[in-house]
Each structure stands twice: as structure tokens, then as C-alpha cells.
Amino acid sequence: MKTTAAANANIAVIKYWGRRNEELILPNNNSISFTMDSQLETLTTVEFSEKLKRDELDIDGKTATEKELKRASKFLDVVRKMAGKKMFAKIDSINTFPKAAGLASSASSFAAMAAAASKAIGIRLNEKELSALARRGSGSASRSIYGGAVEWLAGVKDDGSDCYAVPLASYEKWKDLRNVIAITNSHEKKVSSTDGMKITTRTSPLYPARLSSVEKRLAVVREAIKENDFEMMAPAIMQESNNMHAVMLDSTPPVIYLNSTSFKIIEKVIELNDSYGRPVAAYTFDAGPNAHIYTTKKYEKEVSEILEHMNGIEKIMVCKVGEGVRYLEKHLF
Amino acid sequence: MKTTAAANANIAVIKYWGRRNEELILPNNNSISFTMDSQLETLTTVEFSEKLKRDELDIDGKTATEKELKRASKFLDVVRKMAGKKMFAKIDSINTFPKAAGLASSASSFAAMAAAASKAIGIRLNEKELSALARRGSGSASRSIYGGAVEWLAGVKDDGSDCYAVPLASYEKWKDLRNVIAITNSHEKKVSSTDGMKITTRTSPLYPARLSSVEKRLAVVREAIKENDFEMMAPAIMQESNNMHAVMLDSTPPVIYLNSTSFKIIEKVIELNDSYGRPVAAYTFDAGPNAHIYTTKKYEKEVSEILEHMNGIEKIMVCKVGEGVRYLEKHLF
Question: Which of these, A144, A292, B71, B228, is most buried using a 10 Å CB contact count?
């Protein structure tokens, strides 16, 4: 009844912003991401036990907040219902990177928790089922089940049974891809993604047009991933980031995650591409001010150097594309 | 052949961003503004003379740049064609406020130039004709012909003959309105409005949806102006500003005029309104980082005090609603 799993964060190039079902976490559009390497990893041990009187959750060695525990318990309820069992669980979770800084820790957390909890309670799930389960904890966690390039299918069914992620390309195929991450602000964000999405879908007059335009970018990125063509993908990645942050700004009240450093980075990446006359790097921003600059091995150093000369950047990390969820022999407790 | 006119800047609450005809400056949508008082004024003397060998332009006592002269000459060509005359002109223009800082100096400049040049060359125009003429210099100049609240009609005709501004309410009716202006950056902007508009209309997938949504806000603001109802107008003003800056961000490359101080001001205005439980102030940003906070006499001081405690603001001005274009007896040269 005790299992440990590891999962890595993923950084979307076509974003998830807005749900068609809040409870089941069914998104309005497909999204595509690359799973990162183990620099952005969550390790999670789950143990179900008849002896426990309530769920227990430690994150990074500390007792979790009531809010975090409530979210985990709600997720465990889904697992318990699937297994037809009523035991509580003890969970220990360790992140290799700061929580809620826009580095998508909820994706790796719930992917690892889905894998560990389902196995610990004794249910066997295939990858699609595991992806659909992880989705119930955090939408983007559905993508962290797989390594490499991944597409999360929005599906059309009300019960969410066609809503899970599928692999698009292995991480070996994209081994030269780099995500140069500029941490511009590691404090926790003010508006959660869940709240921000609700505000946008309810109030932005431009949001329906985003849903139409995202289809075109999905097609381009899907093709580029298949063809292993970074240059084809790069403009669509930047447009997609701009488009998502545009509908956030169009919301009432406006949902603003970017800061002045983010805008300076956007400018620098455009200048870099202009200097080559072709896209060698592509910025993307999640629900936070940290920049993810996708580029290739060849330009990794040049991108890093540009960032090193800028003010307002706390830390620079370079991630490769990594693998999907895996089980470990050694437990955290 | 020598005439002097004065015109004030106007600050739009429903914005002009995108043209259906570049040459004639015909916009894609109607816009609504308030004309400001004489703190944001341009005085312009125009003299046509057979003796001149080319047009001459001084701005704020200095010889204008070739680019500025070219734009003025192109405008004078329109006036000369209307009059059927071929004389060159000497123009002196003085602004009471910094050029190209997002304070809409082109609006007051071309409104004053249209009034002075047309009279100097001997043609008599009614207000609609004068508005249509000013439009040829700078779109928003069409609105500065009138005082108070003004709507610029986009029209539908290819020749632009139905494209001019009309008054919505006198400045006496809105005498309690205030525009608390926070100058966050008085340097000239990088991307001109003309270029920025082109980029947005050509590349933003969200732009067509903006044009649909702006119709609803136009109706709300028109009704609010008629009813003299600030609270009705305020949310639409903020939504409109967010919406325009959203399609700017959605452009390729993104057109970004706001800075971190602008975003902080947005936050503060929302907090202020939340504290009252109703909108007592409304921010709006043109193609620049300066904030225009529309409020009423009653809250003017409170809004100013909030801005005084913020970093990144170079200057605070409080404008009232002002009058339209007028002729002066005294010339600048």
C-alpha cells in the first residue's frame, strides 16, 4: 500500500486557459507541451492505511496548508472511489523547484500523486487512464504522464471519458530542444490559474476568438513536432503566449501575470530572431512572470548570455526535454 | 493669409486602433473622447505666402525634423487642393505639453493646423468639414474640433465623406469630470501609433473580435454621456483600454506600450473602486504608458494622492473637460 512515483513539470507551447467543466477539469481547447527533465521534478510517496484518521500531506518536508491538504484529499477521493476503498493516505511530496512560481509544480505534483496513489491503492491503469486521473488534480498534470511532446485532448464528452493526454513525440526525438528558464520572480502568484481562467472565460469579449485562433496554432505545432522542425514551431509558440496573455488582459478585472522583466525578455528574443533573420528562440509565459525560452542546443548559450546581462532575473536554468512518470523503489518515508 | 488657432488634446474612452483606409485615415470603428482643457493645448499660426519656396515648420520654437515637415506638407497639400491654390506656408506650433509621450499631441496639433490653415488660405468650412480635414493629418484630431464629449464616426463610404466627428455633450455638461494624468515616461515612444495599428490589424487573430465588442461599449458610453452618468461609463472605459492593449499584445511582433508603473496604476484603481463597492475612477491608456484616470471632482484628490505615493511617476496633472478649436487674434510670428 506504499508507492513512490516521480514526474516532471511540462511547459506548454499551446496553452490550457479555460474549462468547459470545472469539477471534472475539462478544458476548452487541446494543449501541447514538452515534458521537462528532472530539474523540474516532484517525488511523491503515498501510503494508504486503515490506521489513519484523515489524510496527511507533507510538501518539501513541511506540513501542508489546509488548502493544499483539501485539494489533495479531493483528489484522493477520486482514487478511493475508483478503487472502491475508503482508507486515508499519508503523502510526502518533494519538489526540486519553488512551488507556485509559474513553474507548473502542480503538473508534476498531481502526475506523481496519480501514479503513486493509484498503484498504492491497488488499481492498474493504462497511460490514458492515468493521464485522465492526473487531470482531476490539475489539468496540466494530464500531460506530465508522458515524456517528450504531449497533446492533451479536450474531448467533447460531458463525462470527460475522451479527455486525456497522448504522446506526440519521444524525448529522444527532441533531445536538442532547450528551455532556457528565466526566473524573474519566485514569489507565489496573486491570482491562481483556476481563478484567473474563470475570470477570463466569464468576462473577456475576446476569449471566443482565442478558441478559434488556437486551432490553427495547434495544427502548426503538431506538424512541426512531427517534422522535428523548430523554426516552424517557434512563431506559433510566441503568438500563442501573446494570445493567452492578451485575453487575460482583456478580462475584468484584468489578469496580469507578466512583469516589466517579462516584457524586456520578449523584446530581446524578438531582437535575437531579427538578428538571424529566422526564429532561433521562442518565448512562452505560463500564469506567471517567468520566461521559458525554447531554443535549440546550438543557440542555448547565446540565449543564456542575453539573459545574464539583464536586470530583474533571479535565476537562469536550462532544461532539456525529459521523460514521463516513473516508479521508484526507494520511498520518502 | 495669416491665421492662428488653438486646439486641445482629447483622451479617448473608446479608442481608435486600426484603419480601413490608410491614405484617407478612415478608422475601423467609431471612437469617443473628451476634449481636455488648455493644459493640453497646441497654438498654431499658419501663413501662406507666394514668397516661400517650400513649407516651413517650427515646433516649440525649433525647426521641425524632416519627418515632421513631410507630414505637415502632406496635410497642407490637402488644404491647397481644397482651395485650388499652390502657395507654400510657414507654420509655427507651440505645445503646452511634451510631444509624442502618449499625450495625443498630434490630435491638438492637426486640429489647430486644420483650423488655421483652412482659414488662412481662404476657405470656409463648417465643423464637420473641419473635423474631416483635421482627420487627414491625424485621425484623433477629428475629435479635437469640438469641446466636451465627442464621437468620431467611422462612416462606411470609400471616399470618407461620412467620416467626421460630432459633438455628444458640451463641456459644461461634464464640468465635474476630471482626468488625473500620471506621466510615467515622457520619452518618445518606440512604435508610432500608425505603425502599431498596422501591425495589429494585419497580425492579431483577436482583432476582428475587438471590432465586434467595441460596438457594445460604444452604446454604453454614448448612453452614459447622454445621462451624465459616470458610474455607468467607468467599467466600459477600463474594459476598452484593456481590450485595445490586449489586441496590441496579441500582435506579431507584440506592440507593448504599457510599463510596470501602468500595471501598478491599473491595480490601484481597481482597489480604489473595490473599496467603494462602485466605480469612482476609470483608467485608460493610449498608445503610451501614461495613465489617464477619469474620475469626478469628488474623488479627484483621493486619486491624486494614490498616485503621489507611487514610484515611477514623473508628473501628475489634473485636467478638466475643455472647449473645441478657436481662433486667436495674436499670432506666434
Answer: A144
The conformation of residue A115, written as its DSSP 8-state character, comes to: H
Report which of residues A23 and B96 the model is more confident about: A23
Going by C-beta distance under 8 Å and a sequence separation of 6 or more, which residues neighbour residue B130? B114, B115, B118, B145, B325
Answer yes or no: do A206 and B206 touch at CB < 8 A.
yes
Taking residues B161-180, report their average pLDDT.
Answer: 98
pLDDT at B102 over 90: no
Q: Where are the alpha helices (DSSP H) in A277-318?
A: 300-308
pLDDT exceeds 80 at position A99:
no
pLDDT tier, A316 (very low <50, low <70, confident <90, very high otherwise): very high
CA distance A269 to B217: 35
End residue of a domain, out of B156, B173, B190: B173
Same domain, A190 and A312: yes
Both A256 and A166 in one domain: the answer is no
- N- to C-terminal Cα separation, chain A: 13
- A219 within some domain: yes
**Structural domain tally of chain A?**
2
Whether pLDDT at A103 is above 70: no
Q: How far is B254 from chain A (nearest CA, A)?
A: 7
CB contact under 8 A, B249 and A246: yes
Residues A233/A282, Cβ–Cβ less than 8 Å? yes
* Angstrom distance (rounded) from CA A95 to CA A114: 16
pLDDT of residue A105: 83
Q: Can you give the residue range of the structural domain that contains B252?
A: 177-320
Q: Which residues of A touch B267 (CB under 8 A)?
A: 256
Half-sphere exposure of B1 (CA within 13 A, CB side): 14
pLDDT mean over B167-192 = 88
Which ipTM value was assigned to this complex? 0.92
Does residue B99 have a pLDDT over 90? no
Of A140, A173, A206, which marks where a domain is finished? A173
Q: What is the pLDDT of residue A100?
A: 45
B69 and B12 in one domain? yes
Chain B residues in contact with chain A using a Cβ-Cβ cutoff of 8 Å: 204-206, 208-210, 212-213, 216, 235, 238-239, 242-243, 245-247, 249-254, 256, 259-260, 263, 266-267, 270
Q: What percent of chain A has pLDDT over 90?
A: 92
Interchain pair A206, B208: CB under 8 A: no
Residue A326 lies in a domain: no
* CA B289-A242-A99 angle, 5° bins: 95
Cβ-based contacts of B245 with chain A (< 8 Å): 249
Domain-located, residue A329: no
Residue of chain A with shortest Cα separation from B248: A246
| Average pLDDT over every residue of B229-235 | 98
Mean pLDDT, to the nearest integer, of A133-159? 98
| Nearest CB neighbour to B254, from listed A208, A242, A254 | A242
pLDDT of residue B187: 64
Give dist(CA A267, CA A243) in Å, integer. Answer: 16
Instruction: Answer whether A206 sits within 8 Å of B243, measured CB to CB.
Output: yes
In this structure, the answer to whether residues B300 and B206 fall within a common structural domain is: yes
